[in-house]
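[SOLVED] Predicted holo structure with adenosine-5'-triphosphate

Edit: marking solved, answer below. Original request kept for reference. I posted the sequence and ligand SMILES and asked for the 3D complex as structure tokens.
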Amino acid sequence: MMMNDLIQVAPVAQPPVAERRIGDVILDLQGISLSFGGVKALTNISFDVREHEIRSIIGPNGAGKSSMLNVINGVYHPQEGRIMFRGELRQKMEPHVAAAQGIARTFQNIALFKGMSVLDNIMTGRNLKMKCNLFQHALYWGRARQEEIEHRLKVEEVIDFLEIQGIRKTPVGRLPYGLQKRVELGRALAAEPSLLLLDEPMAGMNVEEKQDMCRFILDVNDQFGTTIVLIEHDMGVVMDISDRVVVLDYGKKIGDGAPDEVKNNPEVIAAYLGTSH
Ligand SMILES: Nc1ncnc2c1ncn2[C@@H]1O[C@H](COP(=O)(O)OP(=O)(O)OP(=O)(O)O)[C@@H](O)[C@H]1O
């Protein structure tokens, strides 16, 4: 089996890179190493992410992809290495600080409130933007009400964008898996992130659901200029929508470059065929 054989989804038309205004490096990771006790999840990984690009992280199971996302949004603190975000050296970033700096993410296992409606789940993505606290809600009802209306409008925009108007009142737990994934994307978008981290947004989806999700990811990138870092196992999707791809294997970087370059990298092919170890 070659890398090309892994392609499962019909190609999605992608505008040329120049049209999507790829900019300067906004995230620069240098020499990142992360261990859990004796387990080395990441060893001396360096790569960067440019503004407005779609940057994918791929690799076999256990390669360190989710650990890398957790380093980027401050859930894990690497023992070694340096992270620059928008020109600032980050020490121990906490997840809420990363969120406040415009980094949002979705998770491998959907993390939504199953009993709450689609609308209310997406509304939770606005939490960091809310200025009025409970006390102010009681004292300045008018101001809090105005703020609530503004948040609702933003959430409705996200709902329209993701074409989920028909299910806005439905409890999330009643939705099929593919739609739940879309709602999770909606919650991340409600935070109006500049950097969006997507952990296997297409896992468990059928071909049609994958094509829809691809379209939404490309539209988010194109219409809002959002920079996207994506982990995905489906090589067809990755090669179609990414500007650049970084490849991890056993916690080490074995490839980095444009999709065509990575596809033809012998070390990457060997890792996917299981012949490198
Ligand atoms: N919290 C943790 N505690 C201990 N070990 C961990 C932890 N998180 C990850 N690891 C280990 O680090 C290594 C990399 O795991 P990680 O989940 O980052 O890989 P992955 O590439 O995302 O895998 P998958 O594709 O299966 O999701 C694995 O050996 C894993 O067991």
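OP edit: Confidence is low (pLDDT under 50) at residues 1-11. Thanks to everyone who chimed in.
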